[in-house]
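Lab intake sheet, docking and co-folding queue.

SAMPLE TYPE: protein with bound small molecule
LIGAND NAME: adenosine-5'-triphosphate
LIGAND FORMAT: SMILES
REQUESTED OUTPUT: full 3D complex as structure tokens
PRIORITY: normal
SUBMITTED BY: R.K., bench team

The fields below were copied directly from the construct record.
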Amino acid sequence: MPIRKLSQDVINKIAAGEVVQRPANAIKELIENSIDAGAKSIKIKTKKGGLEMFSIEDDGCGIAMEDLPLAGVRFATSKLQEYTDLKDIGSFGFRGEALASISHVGHLTITSKPASQQVAYKLSFDGGKANGEAIPSAGKNGTLIQVKDLFHNMNMRQKSYNPNETFAKIADVIRAYSIHYEKLNFSLFRIDKSQTQVRSWNLPDRKTIIEKTFSKEVSSNILTSKLTDEEIGVDGEIFFTSSVYCGKKFILLIFINNRLIESKQIKQIIESIYEDFLPRGSRPWVYINITMPGRNIDVNVHPTKMEVQFLHDERIYDLIKKKMDMFLIPTKTDRTMSVVPTFLSNHETSVIDLNESRDSRRSDPPSLDYQHQMVRNDNTSQKIDSFLANIEEIRSGNNENKPLQQQSTPNKKTPDSPDQKKSLKRKFVTNETINGRAKRKNCNLRSMMLLYDEICGNKDVDFKNLLDTLIFVGFSSSTNIIVQSQENLLSMDFSQLSEDLFYQIIVRDYSNFDVDEFETPIDIPSLLQLSNMPPEKWERLLIALKNMREMLVDYFGIRIDENYNLSGMPKILDNYRPEFNKIYKFFEELEDTNWNEEGKCLKSITKALAKFYSFSNYHRDELEYLREVMENTVFPIFKSHFFMPQLSDDFSEPVKLTSLPALYKVFERC
Ligand SMILES: Nc1ncnc2c1ncn2[C@@H]1O[C@H](COP(=O)(O)OP(=O)(O)OP(=O)(O)O)[C@@H](O)[C@H]1O
Ligand SMILES: [Mg+2]
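RESULT FIELD (auto-filled):
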């Protein structure tokens, strides 16, 4: 057959068929137009899975009457002028193609009213051309787009679609946008069934939207993590179900620079992460939200805009994998073992596989293979120390009190459900001090209550979930400790977390600290000479300390006399004394304290104390003593009383060193 040029009509239809592959693509384009128009609410209605009719109504800026004739014309847009604008494009639209394409495969009617216009105007389009002129019509501020008989001129395509399936795809798109645009109100109404299928109106946060648009099962099993790589300007977050969740359908919502996209690579990565430990037939639920500089992403790759290309893709995939690995692996054993024997226990051991009921493939009795997954996940269980002589002397301080471990039972539950969070909060305000004594005084100082509220407002629930699984193992360097989280060994810098812990204890137990009296009082001016504080600031600090000495001893257990001598510091934890020979560092921290404002002053003293008592720079000679403190005091309190951490941006997250299965592979051969 000779080569002939296709007619414009055929060209347009082919192009339109690529943009509008099914009703869900058209609806996605229209939602994006509404968001570009600044809409706050977007209502979608469908009939016969969108094939007979769909409409979308928004309360955005509207289209002026004089612009209406161009809205449905190919390559007419209000969003892009020059090609170079594309690299910084902030809108979804840029081609001026969506509405025209829809009008090539369906009957399109636009009714629109900008707030400045008295009435709405209505104009219909077919084949990329307006049918006559816009006529006045009833209509609210915003835009209503109606599409009838989609694919009326593409017989094969119309027949090949099943309305239930096309509707399911529409619902998927709307759920995805409801979750991503948590502040916008979306609704999807199925006219032929008189049913509202998705509704995200006025829901308070993303987790509730997930619950309402998907299910409680998904929302209550969600783990979250930040996705940040400052070097390449990537920021974002990931919400993903724990290994306990077994969905029927793999839901993966990926938004890059607010665009809903599909990515085979990310899909494969996530499948491979979950494949190790989800039972066959079970699927995860994942939402990824990444932003990056506009110049690093090419959005003009595919007619449906569902594919994008971006720089540093491998690095971003690695970041996703690393974050998911870190949080998912600890939950893995939750699901596979409910009884976790210790290696050293003489008792009979048993393993109960919770998958059994869900997964009939695993009908074999538990075999010895499971031993490589058996980990001690409870500080109170028997361990090698019980066979060794106890370390009796705890530094120079007297140590009459029982180890805290015996006084309080660690709370093993993770605070991820609202009920658990509440109970944690209750625990935090209990009438006992952290050290287990009944409170002598119950002070309700407003400034301290505000600090307390701030702590309760910390939201790093996902990280707290990880913290709750931790068991102290040992020290790996002068700054890092090694912890066990289920079957993984992690290395972490504990200084900031321990500072957070002391801060919370001080806020909670202020006014109730015993004073650790010094044998010889220390002269504060000579301490200041050791510090980095400029001498011109010494006087101001000394006067403030003198004037406030009653408050300092009363609230914080810091005893200072009239002659600027420090004679005692608080016993914040009974079994632990910080390195008092470095006490000048505490005063250094008070350099910029605002002594005139109660709230700021108390916060600054609390912070300085917390920093001084926190664990950092461990010395070789101290390790034995500190190990005792960590195991018997700090980690139990961490589990039982620590509220959400308030991590600063430079916090370096724990690094996974190895895992029990990995070690087993090596040592099994020996
Ligand atoms: N809901 C809406 N509210 C206000 N203006 C709209 C709305 N929908 C479309 N428009 C206007 O109609 C124009 C054409 O829309 P259309 O979706 O066809 O193209 P686009 O959004 O500019 O680019 P793209 O084809 O990439 O989506 C838009 O540029 C915008 O000015
Ligand atoms: Mg558009």
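REVIEWER NOTE: The mean pLDDT is 79.
SIGN-OFF: pending second check by T.M.
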